[in-house]
Design a protein that fits this description.
With 158 residues, the chain is an alpha+beta fold. The chain has a domain at 6-26 and 66-150: TATA-Binding Protein (2-Layer Sandwich). Helix content is 24%, strand content 34%. It has helices at residues 6-15, 123-150; strands at residues 31-35, 46-51, 60-71, 75-81, 90-101, 107-117. Strand 4 and strand 5 form a beta hairpin. The protein is globular. The two termini are 24 Å apart. The model has no long low-confidence stretch (mean pLDDT 93).
């Protein structure tokens, strides 16, 4: 539940400063910046994502984000792919963000992510990773978004 406007709950996760959302956690490097992001926020729009150096990643360009769908004030679907570092054999991630206003003035947010395994032999590891680490990390990401929305953090994209 988000205690903010529908517009803030809808726009904040995709149009805000992603460095304040993906702040890193254990093996997951933090996002440092994006480039080639002129079309970000529109269907088909992309951006290159850069991450910090960690023991498992040299730092630099990490992946490509793409907006697959946008239904104003209701739904986003994005894809993260083109990994420049080893992601345990995952080939891509898809994220879906649903917003719905409730009668009490709060906004119900549902975030669904799908992780695509690029190797059937690694699937058991992927399942464990997704159900443990990734689930914890995504809860942190949603809390960051919730805080940015509540604080009326400015958007970087239109």
């Amino acid at each position: 539940m988000f205690n903010t406007t529908l517009e803030r709950a809808f726009k904040t996760p995709m149009l805000c400063d992603v460095t304040k959302v993906h702040t890193g956690f254990l093996i997951m490097p933090k996002v440092t910046h994006c480039s080639n992001d002129e079309t970000w926020g529109t269907v088909g729009g992309t951006r290159k994502v850069f991450m910090s150096k960690t023991a498992a990643f040299k730092g630099g360009e990490a992946a490509l984000d793409k907006v697959l769908e946008r239904k104003e004030l209701a739904y986003w679907k994005i894809e993260i792919s083109g990994f420049k570092y080893w992601m345990l054999g995952f080939s891509k991630f898809e994220g879906e963000w649903f917003t719905q206003p409730l009668p009490d003035g709060t906004i119900q947010v549902q975030y669904i992510y799908t992780m695509f395994s690029g190797n059937k032999f690694l699937y058991p590891l992927h399942w464990i990773f997704t159900k443990t680490f990734w689930n914890i990390y995504m809860k942190r990401v949603v809390r960051n978004i919730q805080q940015l929305a509540a604080n009326n953090e400015p958007y970087l994209y239109a």
